[in-house]
Amino acid sequence: MADRPAYPGTPRWVKAAAVVVGLLVMLVSEAGMLAGLPPGAAFLSKWRLLVGAAESAAWLAMTTLLLSTILNFAYFVPIIVRAFTGPAPAAIEEAPPAVLLPLLVTACAGLLLGLFPDAAGHLLALAETTAASVLSAP
User: Long-range contacts for 78-85 (Cβ within 8 Å, ≥24 apart)?
Assistant: First the structure.
């Protein structure tokens, strides 16, 4: 059973392309969401924090934000470099249920909260109130 490929008949280039696309998605998400670089989602919030810190002359806050961006990027770049240039693993095993179950529960909870934001209380109303107070602040 171990000698059989996971998807018989799938050309090798399709598998390689899927891996490359996955790694590129990881690179873009790391740069955009974790490090706060454009055009990621975290960039706008980090930019507004930097502008606010600059307007109030909070140089320590600005330095901390910029340092966290550099460190986040530096932490994840070696992972991506090794993924593209490192040796291929000998064998890959399926993760045990103790690892898969929390991932499944988190994914389902995120999906349900995204589709039904008021199911767990008044989360949507709280978010709208918070957004209105932040946007109307002087």
Answer: 79/26, 80/23, 80/26, 80/27, 80/30, 83/23, 83/26, 84/23
| One domain, residues 7 and 48 | yes
Which is nearest to 39 in space by CA: 28, 49, 48, 50? 28
Q: Are residues 22 and 39 in the same domain?
A: yes
5-18 pLDDT, tens per residue?
566 677 777 777 88
Q: Do residues 28 and 45 both lie within one domain? A: yes
14 CB neighbour count, 10 Å cutoff: 10
The whole domain housing 87 covers 1-93
Both 110 and 85 in one domain: the answer is no
Please enumerate in sequence order all residues whose Cβ is within 8 A of that of 117, keeping only pairs 6 or more positions apart, or say none: 123, 124, 127
pLDDT tens by residue, 8-53: 677 777 777 887 888 777 777 776 666 677 766 677 778 888 888 8
